[in-house]
Amino acid sequence: MTRATSLRDALMGLVRLCLAALGCLACNWALAHAQPAPSGQAGAPVVAPAVVSPDAYIVQRHIADVDLRSHVWEWIDPTGAMTLEQVLAAEQSGQAKFLTSASQPRVKHLENKRALWLRFRLNYPADVVDDHVIYIPQPYLDEVTFFVREPTGAWSKHIAGDTVAIDKWPERTRYPVLRLHPTPGQERLVYLRIHQGTRMAIPVMLEESAHFNWDERFEMLVFGGVTGGLVLLTLVCLLQGVVFRDRDFLHLAGFSLLMTFGLATYMGVTPLVVGGRTDIWADVSQAVMFCLIASAGLFLVRLVLQGSAVRPRFLVLLRVAAWLGVPLAVFAALAPRPIVAGVIAAYVLVTTSVSIWACVAAWRVRAKAAWWLTLAFVPMVLAVVVLSARLLGVDMPLWLESHALTLGTALHLPLMVMAMNMRARDKHMAHARTLALETQDALTGLLASHLFEDRVSRALRWNQGRKASGAVVLMKIGNFHRLRAAMGAPAADQLLLRATVRMRRVIANSDNLARLGEAEFGALLESETERAAVQEVCARLVAVGLMPLKGLPKGISLNFQCVVLMLSESKHASIELLHTMRVELGKVSSRTRRPIRFLDSGNATSSEPSHDLHAAHAAALGLPTGQAVTSLGVYADSDVLDGPDEVVIPGGDTLPGATEGSSNVAQFPTRRA
């Protein structure tokens, strides 16, 4: 047997073991949740009383979530105003014919103030002593009245619903609940009268009190966790909006708070927290909240997409659809319920469709927030479909509706926060670039000229009477105009960027490096005290400029020329010295052999060392000064050298198609070795 075969057999054995375990768990679950067998049927776990009504439901021990609709008899009162006594009399006379619910549609149509009457009997065996709960798991039921015949023969009445103040309910819960104390060996007759203005499936559930309490606590725990997360998210957005002064996050905080309140209203928790002495808000709250949340969601989508490449007409459509939710909310609070349900369902579907269209539009223009916006609306689409189906009267489990809405809300808001963060990041980056244009050069990122002049002016004033150290250096690329004429503007801009990189490498404090003109730069050296140190910095700058540039023809380099003013030698504190330096820098010829010059501030003339260019060439080639001069063939007997118009590369080669201005090598006519 090979190793692969043994491994495959081991895996197959593990799979069989897992399947067997799952089968055992499924059997145990089925036995634990099996429906109780009716009276007289084989396998009934309890002994029925001696006399049992044929339509009675035998209550078992430890039951959970038993739907009584298959054991309920129903009849619709066309007037909706009959009392229990009148219904009992009509039933005895045959005018009120109760029919089994199994033969009737699940979705009830109770418009025009009609009332639905439900009747069922509960038979308690002798061993059933625990309390039970009858509840209707619909937190948006208008009104339900429980009529229970007590063992004494008297009838007890309990009322609940959205149109009833919660203080009058038999129990302060999310939906109508009635607790029944068992009477072993006897039957309990229960009538329910239900008023509902919209189409709805009305399940009637029976459950043991202990199971019901545990389920209710678990649901409230899940709802409390989701609500706590939403409240925390609201506070984070609020603080971020206040600290960073960003109104977008304040809008998101308002939307998150509205979503939290809407979820609490839908789950039936708002009356428990606010108090239940009025029934006006409980009756219209859900319709109003649906409209406001849909409207606020469209406003938020428009806010996220604003500033992107989405068409302006589409943003106008989003704005109109969002503002439409405000009058619809007022209409939902005043109009009849049947009309409101259809209008709200249509508006919710329209807003969802427009939001999906917005996601598609964001994807098409490749907006950065499109991914997060799409993910945010994926869970909400499921919740909206379920809610719209419920508003239109489709019968579906309550757990699917509540879980879909809770999950959609819990996932929607964090993803919308991510989309808003993407928009805020882009907006802040654009704002930072706008502010940088006021302080930095747009191409090179160096300091703006007016800020450099302010720093030089402060340095000159501080130098008066203190003999402070430092120097002001103005630089230019002498052959820049010739290179631009030969290579074009894009290549010239690239050369400026490379020159900026090289200047940053040479000058220690690059924060005081500024761009003053097209190819002119300035630097404030605050730590240099001697001319020799400043001359060394300038010589290194000239040397790195003469180094070959990658990606360009051989022999193309940058000729830096410098004019220096030592602050310790300056006699005036006027900013006119900077203007004088720029004038002197403009006088330096593009073919000079002395690219480094010092300005005497007393007489506004320049003085320069005799062989700065030779030192720069030597530093660039790593050779002694004399050898570098011999290799380059530089004429040392004149300041400005007149040579041929063609560009001669060291070594005797001529750059094809180049003119005199296409290379800085033209400034130094060469000879063959």
Chart the SSEs and their pairings.
Blueprint: H1 3-32, E1 56-58, E2 66-67, E3 73-77, H2 84-93, E4 99-100, E5 107-108, E6 115-123, E7 132-135, E8 143-149, E9 155-160, E10 177-180, E11 187-195, E12 200-201, E13 205-208, H3 209-243, H4 247-266, H5 270-274, H6 280-305, H7 312-323, H8 325-334, H9 337-364, H10 370-391, H11 398-439, H12 449-463, E14 471-477, H13 480-487, H14 489-506, E15 513-515, E16 520-525, H15 531-546, E17 560-566, H16 576-587, E18 596-600, E19 605-607, H17 612-621, H18 625-632
Parallel strand pairs: 1-6, 17-18
Antiparallel strand pairs: 2-13, 3-4, 3-6, 5-12, 6-11, 7-10, 7-13, 8-9, 8-11, 14-16, 14-17, 15-16, 18-19
> What structural category characterises the helix and strand content?
alpha+beta
In round numbers, the mean pLDDT is 75
By DSSP, the count of extended strands is 19
Put simply, the count of helices is: 18
Termini gap = 81 Å
User: Beta-strand percentage?
Assistant: 5-15%
Radius of gyration: 44 Å
- Low-pLDDT stretches are 1-7, 27-50, 608-614, 616-673
Largest sheet: 7 strands, mixed
Q: What is the molecular shape?
A: rod-shaped
Task: Characterise the protein shown here.
The protein is 49% helix and 13% strand. With 673 residues, it is α+β, with helices and mostly antiparallel strands. Helix 6 (280-305) packs antiparallel against helix 8.
Quick structural overview:
49% of the residues lie in helices and 13% in strands.
Notable features of this structure?
single chain, 673 residues, alpha+beta, seven-stranded mixed beta sheet, six-stranded mixed beta sheet, 49% helix, 13% strand, disordered N terminus
